[in-house]
Amino acid sequence: MLDRHAEHFPGPIHQPPLVANVDAIQPGVHAEHAYHPRLQHHFDDMEQQVEASTLGMWVFLVTEIMFFGGLFMAYLVYRWASPTGFQEASNHLNVTWGAVNTAVLICSSLTMALGVRAAQTSAPARTQVGWIVATMVLGAAFLGVKVIEYTDKFTHHLVPGPNFVWEGQYPAAAEIFYSLYFCMTGLHALHMIIGLGIMTVIAIMAWRGQFDSTYYTPVEVSGLYWHFVDIVWIFLFPLLYLIGYHYH
Amino acid sequence: MHGVVMVFFFLIPSIPAVLGNFLVPIMIGAKDLAFPRINLLSWYIYVLGGVFTLFAALSGGVDTGWTFYTPYSTAASNSHVMSAALGVFITGFSSILTGLNFIVTIHRMRAPGMTWFRLPLFIWAHYATSLIMILGTPVIAITVLMVAAERALHLGIFDPALGGDPVLFQHLFWFYSHPAVYIMILPAMGVISEIVQAFSRKNIFGYSFIAFSSLAIAVIGFFVWGHHLFVAGQSVYAGLIFSFISFLVAIPSAIKVFNWTATIYKGSVSLDSPMLYAFGFIGLFTIGGLTGLVLATMGIDIHVHDTYFVVAHFHYIMVGGAIMGYLGGLHYWWPKMTGKLYSEAWSKFSALIVFVGFNLTFFPQFIAGYIGMPRRYHAYPPEFQVLNVLSSAGASILAVGYIIPLIYFMYSLVAGEKAANDPWGSRGLEWEIPSPPPTENFTVTPVVTEGTHQYVHPSQEVGVA
Ligand SMILES: [Cu+2]
Fold it and tell me: How far is ligand 1, taken at its centre, from the CA of residue B332, in Å?
């Protein structure tokens, strides 16, 4: 049996402990301290908890960059393969709607940042909820515009597949372009919808008065996510809408 | 189907999920991973992905192989590509969340005194693995999503008939799937580093070299994917560069093998079952790694491409490496995880059976492949008959070697002797707490005073006059 293995080793197995406080490794009762009510049991203090949550969100955003990265890679390869075809295809996107949506999202980032600030400065629950709801309204407006644009593509047979019709010179490149357009903006819109879900939860928590200057991590990390989704759009807008702007 | 299940549902999660989730917090002196609920979520996600894949398997399987090469997978195959691809997509998120959890935990949850260079090498290996998980897995996720979109919605992305480029799929696929090999092997290397120290009763030779070689493997591993595309129409110059960078990975891998050997040298070696698996790992991984160099050489690869030589090579890494490491780790930490001791005689016997069965299964495949037997065919000319019979016989022996541990592990749960805190006489935080550990691992956060496996001379031990 296994405890016999100690005999293989030279000398007894009593090694000095690796820790300075032996009570840590001996089963016993918890010493209870006055902790912040939001501190989870496995963290030592609030600082460690905040750092862990924030780093967690940043790491998650790195994975998101790689996730969108696959699509950007496909875009890069096909645009490099047929630059003029992509310009021709891009020309059929509505730059005005795209620009409006860009403005809407930049504003939503501002309201989001103000919402985080309101929580950090222990502003009244009404103020916190107000900024978050404003962010959500702007996000919903963005999605509304997206619905208008998608409907327009459907009616003009610009959705790739058997019904795709292209009267320009580069039908193959245009079909790839619109495949990528729907994949990239669709994935982005999905992230917006998830963002609205997160903001709903945050708004409810804020309404219950759960955030103040000692505890605002959920607002802050959700804000990071929101800003990230905005930044993705900042890349999508020129790459999809503007490359054909001078092509007529 | 075999590949999908083995790669995505066994090899990738095995060590990180079974041993890592348990040991990472203990080894760094934390009460739990940073995000316990995300950890649970990643288990649910894994099960959900498994359900989709199981559905694909039970309803007739998928005939694309685990690589889902386009345009066959998107335009031609009429097997259950969609559910298998969705299974892979979903389970990818469990891998991402595990990696995220480990990275945050290792950065933020280390106990006071647990500096980076006191971390057990198992932790360094898991840190490197987690980096690949968070950087690589999202790419395979978006890639299979594009495959699904092309297959279901006829969006043209990879299918040349729709204007797409199938080689782009191969680039995106292997950008993840080559590093995924290191997701499978790095944790096993971490296990071996621990076992070699414990059973040689010596501190590791070249700690920082082993630690940084894990990171080097993770980083270099991201720049070698093109060695899977030597015959896929990739430019010769790209092939040359990928070939060269693939050779570079051999350096950190060799550093590990040499340092393990140097650790064992003049150690007080005891041949318990974990150590037997470690010996198996070192030998078989060396063979797998060296044949990897053969395959990374462009000229030779064109000769042996898609032959059984490749099959034998990656099974030496995956089965001879990753699974040996997993079994070794399971035997090493089983008393800690369950609080029970298993039969030592049977475990040594089964380690031997696994080693013999494995070699009999896969070594003949090197020869068969080298003399020209292609993979993915069920029929072959008569000259390959002997080699194939040997291989099949080996597989049966290997199966016996896997079933025996199943039996004595189960038996130990029911009737095994109770394990002491430190049945092997190892030194490490996990061996100082009870077996099995209490829910929060430590009563209070420990203050660490030195690194693991610092074995002192018998005369200096506590309680010895
Ligand atoms: Cu590879």
Answer: 30
- Mean pLDDT, chain A, whole residue set: 87
Angle of CA points A30, A31, A36, to nearest 5°: 105
Q: Which residue of A has its CA nearest to B433?
A: A25
Task: State the CB neighbour count (10 A cutoff) for residue B410.
Answer: 12
Q: B104: distance to nearest CA of chain A, Å?
A: 6
Q: How far apart are CA A14 and CA B65, in angstroms?
A: 53
The string of pLDDT tens digits covering residues B113-162 is: 999 999 999 999 999 999 999 999 999 999 999 999 888 888 888 888 88
CA distances from A170 to A176, A184, B154, B372 (A): 10, 21, 18, 45
Q: Which residues of B touch A73 (CB under 8 A)?
A: 168, 171-172
Q: Which residues surround ligand 1, an ion (CB under 5 A)?
A: B 178
Q: Which CATH number describes the domain made up of A57-242?
A: 1.20.120.80
Alpha-carbon span B5 to B153, nearest angstrom:
26
Q: Looking at residue B271, what DSSP letter applies?
A: -
A71 with B32: Cβ contact below 8 A: no
The DSSP 8-state label assigned to residue B112 in this structure reads T
CA atoms within 13 Å, Cβ hemisphere of A234: 12
Q: Predicted confidence band at A34 (pLDDT cuts at 50, 70, 90)?
A: low
- Tell if the CB–CB gap between A179 and B134 is shorter than 8 Å: no
Q: How many residue contacts between A and B have a Cβ separation below 8 Å?
A: 217
- Put simply, the answer to whether B423 touches A14 (Cβ < 8 Å) is no
pLDDT digits (tens, 9 = 90+) for B281-309: 999 999 999 999 999 998 888 889 999 99
| Chain B, window 371-430: residues with a beta carbon less than 8 angstroms from a chain A beta carbon | 417, 419-420, 422-425, 427-429
What does the alpha-carbon distance between residue B332 and residue B463 come to, in Å, rounded to a whole number? Answer: 26
Peptide bond into B364 cis (omega under 30): no
Name the residue facing B104 among A42, A59, A69 (closest C-beta): A59
Instruction: Calculate how close chain B gets to A126, using CA atoms only, in Å.
Output: 30
Distance B135 CA to ligand 1 centre (A): 16
Determine the Cα–Cα distance for residues A170 and A78; give it in Å rounded to an integer. Answer: 13
CATH number given to B270-442: 1.20.210.10
Which of B108, B142, B442 is the closest to A71 by Cβ? Answer: B142
Range B177-204 average pLDDT = 94
Mean pLDDT of the B353-365 span: 95
Judge contact between B320 and B351, C-beta under 8 A: no
Please answer yes or no on whether A179 and B100 come within 8 Å at the CB atom: no
Contact check, Cβ <8 Å, B138/A67: yes
- Residue A152 CB-half CA count within 13 A: 11
**What pLDDT, on the 0 to 100 scale, is given for residue A192?**
96
Spatial CA neighbour of B127 closest among B97, B94, B101, B93: B101
- Cα–Cα nearest to B176, from B92, B101, B104, B100: B92
What pLDDT is attached to residue B40?
A: 95
CB contact under 8 Å between A176 and B448, yes or no, is no
Residue A124: φ, ψ to 5°? -60, 150
pLDDT band at A15 (very low <50, low <70, confident <90, very high): low
- B244: which residues sit within 8 A by CB, 6+ positions away? none
Per-residue pLDDT of B57-100, as tens digits, reads 999 888 888 889 988 888 888 888 889 999 999 999 999 999 99
Dihedral angle, C-alpha B374, B378, B379, B380, nearest 10 °: 30
User: What integer pLDDT is reported at residue B457 of this predicted model?
Assistant: 62
**Contact indicator for B395, B320 with CB cutoff of 8 Å:** no
Q: Which of B345, B193, B197 is nearest to B273 (CA)?
A: B345
What are the residues whose beta carbons fall under 8 Å from the beta carbon of B402, sequence distance 6 or more?
Answer: B354
pTM, 2 dp: 0.92
